[in-house]
Every structure is written in C-alpha cells, then in structure tokens.
Amino acid sequence: MKNIINVAQLAKRFGTTDVLNGIDLTIQEGEVFGFIGHNGAGKSTFINMLTGIINKSSGSFEIIGTSDQQLDDVKAKIGVMPDISNLYDHMKGIQFLRYMGKLAGDTRTKQDYIALMKDIGLEGAEKKKIKAYSFGMKKKISIAQALLGNPSLIILDEPTSGLDPESAINIRKLIVDLQQQGKTILLTSHNLDEIDKISDRVGILSDGKVKKLGTPDELKNNTSSELSVAIRTNPTLTSQKLAELSANWDFNVQFVTTKKKYVVVNVPHDNDIAKLSKELIHSGFQLFELRMEQQSLEDVFINSK
Ligand SMILES: Nc1ncnc2c1ncn2[C@@H]1O[C@H](COP(=O)(O)OP(=O)(O)OP(=O)(O)O)[C@@H](O)[C@H]1O
Ligand SMILES: [Mg+2]
C-alpha cells in the first residue's frame, strides 16, 4: 500500500518548550488513522505543521508524494478541519460553503451544496448566518468545508467533540463513507471508543513522541500478556475472599478490580480459567458468568504514559 503521509523526525519547539521531539510516522493511502493523546500532547501542533498552518522546527515530511518544502503544490488535495475554526461568521451557511468551494475548485451545483449540508446534519440551516449557529453546527460546517474540492486526504482535528450523540454517529458514518470512496482520513479525538470503532490504525502521542502505534486490536492485545477474566457469582466474590481461596490454588490469580456485580481477575494461562471456574464451584459459589475482558483503548491509553 502507498504511503500518503511520511513523517521523519518532525519536531516543534515553541520558545524553549519542545512540544514534538521527533515524530516518525507513515499513514497509508485509504486508511483511517486515529491520533490520540492528552490535552496539550501536540496533536493539533502536528496537524498544523502538516497542513502548513505553522512551521516545523526540524525534521521533514512528505504528503501525497510531495516534500514539505513544496507543500503549496498539494494543499488543494488536502481537506482540513483545524482545531480552531476559521469560519466567516457573517455569511450564511450555504453561502460560505459555496464561496469556500469556489476557492477550492469544487464543481458542486447549488443542489449538491444543499445535499452536502443535509449529509453533514445542517438541513434547514442553509440560510442562517454562521454567527447564529450553535457550537455543534459550527463544527459541522467546518467538517463540510474540509470536504470541498474533492480532497484525497482529509484531516479532521476533533470532528465530533461537542456534538450530540446522534450527530457524532452521523459524522462517524460520514468518515466511513469517505474511506469507502477511497479517501485517507487522519483524525484526532478524545473519544477513544470512537477511535477504536473507526480507525484502522491508532497512534498514541505522549512526551512529544509516538509512544504506541498499531491497529486498535494490536494495541489492546499487547498491553498485557495476562488474561483478564470477569466473573459473576453468587455470593459475589470479593478481593478478600479471592485472596483467601487462592492461597491454596496451584495457579496464580490476581485480583484486578470490581465492576458492578463482576470481579475482574488476571490469570497467566488459558487452562487457569478452567481451573478457576472449577475451584469456585468447589468452594460453593454459583457461577453465573465468566467471560474474557478485552482491554479497552482507554486502558491502553492510560498505560502508555
Ligand atoms: N502558538 C503557540 N505558542 C506557544 N505554545 C503553543 C502554541 N500552540 C500550541 N502550543 C503549546 O503546544 C502544546 C501542544 O498543544 P496542542 O494544541 O498541539 O495540543 P493537543 O494535543 O492538540 O491538545 P488538545 O487535546 O487539548 O487539543 C501545548 O503545551 C500548547 O500550549
Ligand atoms: Mg488539539
């Protein structure tokens, strides 16, 4: 597969503060790449360098086969929704999109613009001035703006933050549709379930570096070599009872946490799960449920610092 973004040792320093300390990253054509990291980690800084909004301090990158020195040559092929929107407030929604579309060489008809507004969830707001839009509506029109001019690479900095759940679902569907049309999408989000659902690969940014990189499943499976098991019994198993019982068992079982009526434990091997269920029943517990707990991307994120 072709790389659409190729970043080598990219760094950014603001004054005396190193925000990005040498990012190495490739993003492949046609993938949805989710970039995550805590507030202030440098995600927007990274995106702003890639799109030419700010200058790099050192390192280099290539986008769509073009070096960062010639970024202007490919800007028309990149659709961007930056973290801080650059909307013309005094314009009506549809007027703004048509104006920006013209600048981006978009060939849409007026009807197509109306359809775009509908797709993005702004039906009925076409003739309303942007300054009268709510936060979420402004967000949606910024996303629509990023799609103008048929870009092959779409970069969305927190596209769903502040959107109501239904609108966020629609934006996720839109992202999947865009990918099916062959586009590459780089997005950031603090909603890790969302990143998990729609990203082919995820990068975790921390301390100015890409600390972890992989498919959501790779990241979730690699965090721990132990197997996590959630158990629901009657009476409910406590950490204390587990400690008492397990003192006599010939395998290791480690208490992790209690979640509602479940207790979550770690065991080293598959066959320990069979032993565990046998021992619990033997000790008089009614075993209602025993299931493998997969790490969430949130667990991976918390453990990546
Ligand atoms: N123009 C600037 N001048 C000085 N410092 C800046 C500037 N822009 C960003 N920073 C600093 O760079 C760091 C990274 O900011 P950035 O906006 O890239 O983080 P982020 O990962 O996008 O965070 P968030 O999740 O909150 O959007 C922060 O410490 C921020 O204060
Ligand atoms: Mg940001």
UniProtKB/TrEMBL annotation:
Protein name, per record: ABC-2 type transport system ATP-binding protein
Keyword Metal-binding: no
Keyword GTP-binding: no
Organism in which the protein naturally occurs: Gracilibacillus orientalis
Keywords, alphabetical: ATP-binding, Nucleotide-binding, Transport
Domain ABC transporter, residue spans: 5-232
Family per record: Belongs to the ABC transporter superfamily.
PANTHER family, per database record: ABC TRANSPORTER ATP-BINDING PROTEIN, ABC TRANSPORTER ATP-BINDING PROTEIN NATA
Lineage: Bacteria, Bacillati, Bacillota, Bacilli, Bacillales
Recorded GO MF terms: ATP binding; ATP hydrolysis activity
